[in-house]
Every structure is written in C-alpha cells, then in structure tokens.
Design brief:
With 258 residues, the protein is an alpha/beta fold. The chain contains eight helices and nine strands. It has a single domain, classed as NADP-dependent oxidoreductase domain (TIM Barrel), CATH 3.20.20.100.
Length: 258
C-alpha cells in the first residue's frame, strides 16, 4: 500500500489484528441485514468483524461467515478475526464458560480471536439482558471484576478465546485488572485514516454496501502532519455512550474523568 500503513496490527501475544473491521452495533435494516453486510464486507476485503452477545446479532454474523466459507471466498473461518463481548449478566465466574458457549454456538465457531468484557457493570445472571425487579429497577450484582477476568483467562486456557480484553473500563478499573491479571488485556482502542496512522484499530459500522466499501477505502491516501495536528486539536472530551441507567452501580465507569 502506498501509505506505508500495515494491514495488520500485532497484539502483545503476536496475534495479527486487521487494522479495519466491520462494526455491527445497533444496525438497522431488519432480519438478515447483518448477515448480508458481513458477506459483502468479506467479499471486498474485510477480515475482521466486531459483534456482541447483547447486540443480538452473533447468529447473523456466524451465518455470514459460514456463507463465505461455503462459497469458497475464505478457506477457513480463522481467516476472519471475530471480536465479541461478554455481557453484564455473564460476570459470575462460575457460569462464564457455559454462558460464553452460547456465543460460540451463535457464531458457529469453537474459538473467537478476541473476547472483551463489554461493561464493568454486573447485572443479575440469567437470559434477560436487562433484568428488572417488580419495581422496574435494574437488578445489579456486584461481582469482583478481577474474578470475572480470571474466568476470562480460563476461556483462553480452554481454547475458546485467543485474546481477551476490556471495553468501557475507566483508568482505575483497568489498573486493577492489570495488577491481578495472569493474561494481560489486549490494548485496543476503537474509533478512520487519522486513527490508523496512529496505529489504532478501527471498527466502522454500516450495513449499507456503499458505506462499507467507502469505510474500507482508507489505504489509498494519507493525511499530512498538519492535517493530523488539526484533527488532534479537536475537542475530545464528550462521551457518546454513557449508559445513565447504570450510574447507580458501584462499578459505573464514567463517574471518573477517564
């Protein structure tokens, strides 16, 4: 590529991670739209897909990847770097493995390349994504995040996840995990050319073919140092997904500045 930017970033254990992937959060378009987006993305060169148990789209992601294996576009599902996330109701270490098997079954794989703890907030274990009591209050639980992390490490030991990491954690929560982790979290940040030139992975979201292709066309140009500096000086303080419903939980991450 003329820009000199690598197609892959390398995680600390040597795993190659495509520098751009397909995001699938909160997509519109009805049943089958995520599956079709995954198929098209793979056709034009994407080799990374980001999904989550809570997005309720793992099965469509799995169907899309399976379709590209069946038609010969890919020779092995491992060609696709799959990222998914452990939901808030699955933080109980005793049940992490059995709960994560649901994601693997949805995705039609035995192992994912990256599993993240979606949020540091724990909800009552069970099938309801947002459990509430009879007073319509969210049913929080207080699982030790270090204990949850140890359950994630056990998934790596069992060959169910190649890498594990954190999502939406604040600085002190990350430090707590780092101080107690046997397997260190993958260092990933997500949000196109500006970010890639800083060697950060990007996961743009779309199910519209033209936009999926447009998002992928970031390897044919580069930004000048002045342009990079102008973007860098833009306001970076606002948080987009602040999840106010969880602000009463003791592990709510956004009471802290960062």
């Amino acid at each position: 590529m003329s820009s000199g930017i690598a197609e892959f970033a390398v995680l600390q254990n040597g795993t190659k991670y495509p520098v751009i992937g397909l995001g699938t959060h909160n997509v519109t378009g009805g049943p089958g739209s995520v599956r079709d987006a995954v198929k098209y993305a793979i056709d034009i060169g994407y080799r990374s897909v980001d999904c989550a148990y809570a997005y309720l789209n793992e099965k469509e992601v799995g169907d899309g990847i399976q379709a590209k294996l069946d038609d010969g576009t890919i020779k092995d599902k491992k060609e696709i770097f799959i990222t998914t996330k452990l939901w808030d109701t699955h933080h109980n270490r005793r049940h992490i493995k059995e709960n994560f098997k649901k994601s693997l079954n949805n995705l039609k794989v035995d192992c994912v390349q990256l599993l993240l703890i979606h949020w540091p907030i724990s909800l009552k274990d069970g099938d309801d994504l947002f459990p509430k009591d009879k007073n319509d209050q969210f049913m929080f639980e207080n699982h030790d995040l270090v204990d949850t992390w140890k359950g994630m490490e056990e998934l790596v030991d069992a060959g169910m996840a190649d890498n594990i990491g954190l999502s939406n954690f604040n600085k002190s929560q990350i430090e707590r995990i780092l101080q107690n982790a046997r397997i260190k979290p993958c260092n990933l940040q997500v949000v196109l050319r500006f970010i890639i030139q800083r060697n950060i992975i990007v996961i743009p979201k779309s199910v519209t073919p033209s936009r999926i292709k447009e998002n992928f066309d970031v390897f044919t140009f580069s930004l000048s140092p002045d342009e990079m500096e102008q973007i860098w000086t833009l306001d970076k303080h606002p948080r987009i997904f602040i999840e106010k419903w969880a602000s009463g939980h003791q592990e709510y991450p956004f009471h802290a500045e960062f």
